[in-house]
Write a structure and sequence with these properties.
There is one protein chain. By secondary structure, the chain is an alpha/beta fold. Helix content is 36%, strand content 16%. A hairpin with an 8-residue loop joins strand 8 (260-263) and strand 9 (272-276). The N and C termini lie far apart (57 Å). A six-stranded antiparallel beta sheet has the order 6-7-9-8-10-11, sandwiched between helices. A five-stranded parallel beta sheet has the order 3-2-1-4-5, sandwiched between helices.
Length: 331
């Protein structure tokens, strides 16, 4: 029976190369692709991991975890990166699931496309040791692209993997991987940026506000963060203003029974959603935001609002919010 390994496959260049190098050693590979609500890895609607798995003719298991990841995101044991990205805790969670799959299938080890020193939070030596230990994988976790810079793992020591055929890549430069890809006929791979929304400064700011103000957030709350302009109108309420017709429609899709919706009926207008404790002042501010981004040219604008878009029976006359107040309230 040939040896078997579990790959963590994002579909990016590094994980693609790692799979190629393990397959070239005659090892059977099953790939896992982990998906969270913050993944931003597809090109033109294409799942990159599925594309690579099909190219290499290997089985792929896509694992979506939401609630597990939300628990990590609320209070990561190892903290956040430059944004709201809990990279070390995220990897521990993914690698723990990969270990479970390894044990279920009788595979010999797990491997990834990680490169030593490529990412400042999770791909330095100390962080890698923490991830190895807390995921329960210990030295059954192989990183083929940097293996010769790291201590030999169990599959290397037992001769399952030939260490001499592994690599010693480190740092953030991609030239070695690009050269290797060309040598192996791998050309169709995505650029490395934009994989996780939690590293984006603007989205991270919104996410931090949500974690601090509403720690019991759910998938609907997170989906709403991806749409429109966001304003904190009070400690217990937030307004989201659509930027175009598509976003207006998405805001309506995400609205809940307890939310209030706002629109100027007399001219072109965004749809605004008010979520949280909606008193008189919160309603006034949400209406003023709606007026500010509508096509209304008057100093006073009549804004309709209500719990159902089909019946915005409430009305309030407001002045569009000033630029100063926009900056003050913007999330």
């Amino acid at each position: 029976m040939s040896p078997k390994a579990i790959a963590l496959l994002s579909g990016g260049l590094d994980s693609t190369l790692a799979v190629r190098f393990i397959l070239d050693q005659g090892i059977e590979v099953e790939a896992l692709n982990f998906v969270t609500p913050f993944c931003n890895c597809n090109r033109q609607g294409r799942c990159e991991a599925a594309h690579v798995a099909e190219k290499f003719d290997i089985p792929l298991k896509i694992i979506a975890f939401t609630q597990e990841f939300f628990r990590v995101l609320r209070k990561p044991a190892h903290g956040y990166g430059s944004g709201m990205n809990p990279c070390i805790d995220c990897r521990i969670l993914m690698f723990s699931r990969a270990r479970e799959r390894m044990e279920e299938t009788g595979a010999d080890f797990v491997f990834t496309g990680e490169v030593l020193g490529q990412r400042p939070m999770s791909q330095h030596m100390r962080a890698m040791r923490v991830i190895d230990r807390e995921s329960g994988l210990e030295d059954r976790l192989l990183r083929p692209l940097s293996a010769r810079l790291l201590a030999p793992t169990l599959p290397e020591r037992e001769g399952i993997v030939d260490r001499d055929k592994l690599l010693a890549i480190q740092g953030r430069a991609r030239k070695p991987q690009i050269t290797l890809a060309a040598e192996h006929g791998i050309y169709d791979y995505p650029c490395p940026a934009g994989g996780c929304l939690l590293t984006d400064p603007g989205f991270a700011r919104r996410m931090r506000d949500l974690v601090e103000r509403d720690p019991d957030f759910d998938l609907n709350d997170v989906s709403l963060l991806k749409v429109g302009r966001h304003f904190r109108v009070s400690s217990g309420a937030k307004a989201v203003v659509g930027r175009n017709e598509k976003e207006n429609g998405r805001i309506l899709e995400l609205s809940r029974e307890a939310d209030l919706l706002f629109e100027v009926k007399s001219c072109g207008s965004p749809v605004t959603l008010l979520r949280g404790e909606a008193g008189r002042e919160e309603i006034r501010l949400a209406a003023a935001l709606t007026a500010r981004y509508s096509d209304s040219s008057g100093t006073d604008t009549r804004v309709h609002y209500g719990g159902r878009y089909a019946d915005l029976s409430g009305r309030v006359l407001v002045s569009p919010l000033s630029e100063h107040d926009l900056s003050r309230l913007r999330v």
